Batch of 2 targets.
Target 1
Amino acid sequence: MRVYSEEIHLSTRGEVDIIDITGDVERIVKNSGISNGIAVIFCVGSTCAISTVEYEPGLKRDIPEALERLFPRDHYYHHEETWHDGNGHSHVRATFLKPDLTVPILDGDLTLGTWQQIVFIELDVRNRDRKVIVQILGL
């Protein structure tokens, strides 16, 4: 088994910036030379997430609206007692969405559905410079 790793660097616009990183991950898979295995995509940070979505304008609006309904900004979060940084909801959202995704690689390609893209979701309340680790394992 071989292991290959690369980083993706992103500058985000803050809460809830959704960035399609599918092309970057596909490029890293090609760079790896691995034909069959898995791609692990992991965002470094406690207020960001990795997911899949049909990356289209409607869902780019629906996702932030759904997150606001589920984890409202104006709700009281105990995290504020520690840091007073206004992003307690960001941490809770990230906990539920998760920081990673694993995608099978078959014959050198990511196994994604026709309308399925890999996205980075910024959940913090401010612009951030972010790092995503992509690690490819396989043969």
Target 2
Amino acid sequence: MIDLKNLTITKARKALDAKEFSAVDLASAYLTEIEKKNPELNAYLEVYDDVLEQAKTADQRIAKGESHPLLGIPLAIKDNIVIDGKRATSASKILQGYVAPYDATVIEKLKKDGVILLGRTNMDEFALGSSTENSAYGVTKNSYDLMRVSGGTSGGSAVAVSSNMALAGLGSDTGGSVRQPASFCGVVGLKPTYGRVSRYGLMAAVSSFDQIGPITKTVEDAEIVLKVIKGKDSMDSTTITDETYPKSDVKQKYTIGVPWDLIKREGIDLKVKENFKEAINRLESFGFEVKDIKLPNCLALYYIINFAEVSSNLSRFDGVKYGLHVDGKNLLEDYILTRGQGFGREVRRRILLGTFVLSAGYYDAYYGKAQLARVVLQKEFKEVFSSVDLVLTPTSPVPAWKIGEKSDPLSMYLADIFTVPANIVGIPAISVPSGFMEVEGKKLPLGIQFMAPHSGESVLFDIGKKFLGEK
């Protein structure tokens, strides 16, 4: 019997190459877990019917002597990453029945490596939210406490990995959407440097923030997945090469900046603060220096740009080209009825606010100023990284909250305070498990976040492994 709980990509690779078990055995084990757990957790929206066929093909390649990092490794894929011939809905009714006619670049790379695609996972509709409660297909529950959220927007992939329904998963990170659910579910989540991974085939939410990233059990596994999916892509002009930015050097001792002014503010759980201080003590025991730094609260800046780009990107869903269509008396009514019935409340809210900040009377006052402030923030981070190697924060100011608890959207937006800066300035960030806190008799996972300069993934992997004792 395969020990899925302690299995990692590294261990699975060795076992598959040594013929200790086959790709079919491994895929079957995950399908069994999915059948048993998914009805309650709702992590998968669809499990593909060709999983075992994919596994047989992987076994044939292994039998011929092939060995690639992800050959025969089962992954879960977020529902906004398209796969040729498979349904993709971004967890929205407006894309009901849509079948993708091509592969996203990351899927193309994964297929070439021989990965097994298990299915598409639940998410906040069009990657807008922080809890995977905004899905048209129901909330994804946290495996540590079924009364609590999984985090968002990549909650389905995070739960799939944490509950042993996938060995790893892909999510997309717009303002923390890989890192925050990873923190809530006790796993590792990486947001790469903007442009490190192609966005071709990722349904756009906020194009200047979005980045595909892995959710895994270990930092080493996240590094393995990134090496496969990264790279320059002619289909995405924003992609970068390894030479685009100066290389960050791996060191024996790091200087870590901590923005205490943000961490000491109200709204951050006392137990989260205690856990964070314990993490700092651990890092100092390695000989690392911890310095106090200043960083602004970027939430207002983030959400103005977020709303504006959402309004623009989602204008293509009109009921004419693809997806849901509702008949009205005329073309305008077709649009109104289709978008009204097809989009959920959070999506409609952001479209309206985005249209407002982009309108002729308010463009300069809101969106124009936000873009200027973004340039200033990029300069501030550049200055910060001239004196420290990494920036450290909690991943989230609170642990996973109860389903339905944050009915006020503003309270949910405030939970993104630590994760959004990395997306605004395009730097890489990683969330790693940092312990647990007990709430109402349940042990809830907590995470800490490291941010590095552009192209600093190697530093994130190094310090993440050291923190978790992976080396």
